[in-house]
Design a protein that fits this description.
The protein is mainly β. 10% of the residues lie in helices and 36% in strands. It has two helices and eight strands. The protein is globular and about 35 Å long.
Length: 116
Amino acid sequence: MESVVMSIGKEAISQKEPLIILFDESATEELRKFSVIQQFKTKDIKKIAVGDCLFFDDQKYTIKSVGPVANQHLEEMGHVSIVFKEAGSEDQLANALYVEPFELPNIKEGTVIRYA
């Protein structure tokens, strides 16, 4: 499953917050300020599981935890939050994929995101 970054909101990426919020093109203008907008190349959304990999171009991340609604939101609205830190036992985001390494990827318009 692959998508392409179409736009990056002005407040979407912060070095202080190890988080990237992804949405498809259905995101509202308000959400777009805080989100990375992705366009899927195909609609064959696969279920993401612990141990799968996530690529931002050639930058590889391993999925360590999958929130209970992450797959559903990704399928319905291209929405998932990518968290670059440990998934604590409390305060986990229900729509998140927790990945490592714990560093934000370098992304730009045109970056290919691959869920593998």
